[in-house]
Amino acid sequence: MWKGLDGFIEPGSEEETLVRTIDMGRLPGHVAVIMDGNGRWARRHGLSRIEGHAEGSKSVREIIETASRLEIHFLTLYAFSKENWKRPRSEVSRLWRLLRDYLKREDKMLMEHDLRLVAIGQREGVPAPVIRELERVEELTRGNRRTTIVLALNYSGRSEIIDAVLSILKDGPSDPRGVDEEFFAGRLYTAGTPDPDLLIRTSGELRVSNFLLWQIAYTEIWTTPVLWPDFRKKHFLQAVADYQKRDRRFGDVRSGRDKVAGP
């Protein structure tokens, strides 16, 4: 058993069987998650949508702990898209309150597990109490190194690309030939963060929903019909195990494994 999972994975469980199939030397360095299905979960259980979101926060905690115990370096969670403002005002207000309360409640857990929290997206428009709490936890966890938790808040992949272009137009190089992929990536919200190796989407939907459009060019995608409030460490381990079966070529005719092995 991987030492980081001691006491977290029950002996003889399905999770333990999955762990034994995973090569801990080939874990994805960055996992991104589209957390979908809170509303449908609530409807199936005769609850309000906000109760579905509250239940989903339990999944957030478990997946953060799972990723950190596996020592996955980056975990990006799609928490609130710019399109989410179209929802009823009461639901949006409660969503922001849930996030604020979550940050207040989980700061000790982040410190205990050596986790750093950062947020990406447009902060303009996010309620001031949420921004204050977010900035407090970002500063509190700045020195943590085990896993970086990236929250995508008020986020849009298209807006991110437009903002990068505007930044280049404002103060980019005078010679446009200096704008290559590396330069452009440095103007994105995720500058300094490696592209995701694995993207997980829950609830069975087969779309990327305006999420990390530039960054997922060669990301492996894993979908599950499981709704987000029911998503647990077992499903995360299933995604990692499936990821390790993929042959990542990045447009080459040789597999990544061939290139590592050499001629």
Number of strands: 6
What is the CATH C level class of the domain at 26-156 and 197-245, in words?
Answer: Alpha Beta
Number of helices: 9
Instruction: Describe the global form.
Output: globular
Helical fraction: 40-55%
Can you walk me through this structure?
The protein is an alpha/beta fold and 263 residues long. It has a domain at 26-156 and 197-245: Decaprenyl diphosphate synthase-like (Undecaprenyl pyrophosphate synthetase). It is 41% helix and 14% strand. It has nine helices and six strands; from the N terminus they run H-E-H-H-E-H-E-H-E-H-H-E-E-H-H. A six-stranded parallel beta sheet has the order 3-4-2-1-5-6, sandwiched between helices. The mean pLDDT is 94.
List keywords for this structure.
Undecaprenyl pyrophosphate synthetase, single chain, 41% helix, 263 residues, alpha/beta, 9 helices
Give the topology, please.
Elements: H1 14-19, E1 30-34, H2 38-44, H3 49-69, E2 74-81, H4 89-112, E3 115-120, H5 128-140, E4 147-155, H6 157-171, H7 181-185, E5 198-201, E6 220-223, H8 233-243, H9 256-261
Parallel strand pairs: 1-2, 1-5, 2-4, 3-4, 5-6
